[in-house]
Amino acid sequence: MSASSPLLEISHVSKAYALDHSLSDMLARKPRARLQALRNVSLTIKPGEILGVVGESGCGKSTLGRCIVGLDKPDQGSFAWQGGGFDADRHARARQIQMVFQDPYASLNPRMTLGAMLDEVLKVHGMTADAAARSRRIDELLLMVGLTPALRERLPHAISGGQRQRISIARALAVEPRLLIADEPVSALDASVQAQIINLLADLRAKLGIAILFIAHDLNVVRHISDRIAVMYLGEIVEIAETESLFAEPRHPYTRGLLAAIPMPDPRIRTQAPGIEGEVPDPLAPPAGCGFSTRCPFVLPACRAEHPELIPEGSEHTVRCLNAAASTEFDFTHRT
Ligand SMILES: Nc1ncnc2c1ncn2[C@@H]1O[C@H](COP(=O)(O)OP(=O)(O)O)[C@@H](O)[C@H]1O
Ligand SMILES: [Mg+2]
User: Fold this and answer.
1) From the alpha carbon of 64, which atom of ligand 1 is closest?
2) Fewer C-beta neighbours within 10 Å, C or N terminus of the chain?
3) Contact status, residue 71 vs residue 249, Cβ threshold 8 Å
């Protein structure tokens, strides 16, 4: 694998969930409704890259993460890991891609000390030969995530939310992953603690060279850490670009609306109105053409009929919009 070839490449990944049947649906012999959570998602992650993924709740971010780590099985699409087949490499990949969740409490065993939990992970994955070496490695992992080894004897309830998120990061790092899927890792934390965890992830990338898929519903959260950002809407990527380019020249009306909704640090120039009006469509009945056509201020008749493709606007900037040029001339911050 050359340095510039992708670590992970996913192509045309789709995933639908079959919804549970009510008794009356069953008696009426209705087919189970299918909710399209991911639609034709393609992206690459380079070694050591931080890719931010943003979008409103329900747009498919967690489904994407779960499909990548193998917690969910996509209906369609293909994956390549380090240039090779995804399935052939199943064993290595299961270790090399690790996930960190929004609520670390739910994923930590409440009755196990933090040290015992890390010891178990090291043992299960055969990472370290003997107990003494594992013990040294546990101290090293705790220090790596900014915790003191003295916390080894604590139970998860006896540490703070920020410390718990550090422990779940340490647990993921224990198996020396090459890619971390961080699914809203700071959404449950206070703002000051959020910044600490974001900085920790940035430091870990610099030190260990791991790649991170950083999922958030807020563009502000991913801005300072991401090399590139993918914006999702209704199960698909609507824009993907280098972070600077996305903030300086957002192309998709949805991205521009998200940017307009970010409060300015100076209250005098606070945006007067939220950038995007209306509700996300019911994912069980998505619009026929562009998913955003029901809320878009630039909608053309064609947008309601045709589903737009992702169109490259420069080598690292692509957008799924038939009318992107009109959107770039509109000032979302001054809507009334
Ligand atoms: N296990 C499931 N069964 C049925 N629907 C699901 C399931 N998981 C997620 N969904 C639906 O799939 C869509 C995408 O969900 P999700 O990936 O969790 O979005 P996000 O993480 O962006 O909030 C949502 O409409 C959600 O309700
Ligand atoms: Mg989610």
Assistant:
1) 17
2) C
3) no
CA of 64 to the centre of ligand 2 (A): 9
CA geometry: angle 205, 208, 210, nearest 5 deg: 55
Q: Would you list the domain boundaries of the chain?
A: 253-336
Q: What's the 183 CA to ligand 2 centre distance in angstroms?
A: 7
Per-residue pLDDT of the chain (336 residues; tens, 9 = 90+): 455 689 999 999 999 999 887 888 888 888 888 899 999 999 999 999 999 999 999 999 999 999 999 999 999 999 999 887 777 667 777 889 999 999 878 888 999 999 999 999 999 988 887 999 999 999 999 999 999 999 999 999 999 999 999 999 999 999 999 999 999 999 999 999 999 999 999 999 999 999 999 999 999 999 999 999 999 999 999 999 999 999 999 999 999 999 987 765 555 544 433 468 888 999 999 999 999 999 999 999 999 999 999 988 878 899 999 988 776 666 555 444
The answer for residues whose C-beta is within 8 angstroms of residue 107's C-beta and 6 or more apart is: 101, 168
| First-to-final CA distance of the chain | 52
Q: How far is the CA of 253 from the centre of ligand 1 (A)?
A: 24
Q: How many CB atoms lie within 10 A of CB 242?
A: 16
Residue 77 CA, chain-centre distance (Å), reads 18
- Closest ligand by atom to 283 CA: 1
**What does DSSP assign to residue 29?**
T
Distance 213 CA to ligand 2 centre (A): 13
Q: Give the integer Cα–Cα distance in Å for 134 and 120.
A: 10
User: What residues are in contact with ligand 1 under a 6 Å CB criterion?
Assistant: 17, 19, 35, 37, 55, 57-63, 283
Among protein residues, the one whose CA lies closest to atom 24 of ligand 1:
58
- Name the DSSP letter for residue 293: T
CA–centroid distance, 58 to ligand 2, in Å, is 7
Residues contacting 312, CB < 8 A, separation 6+: 318
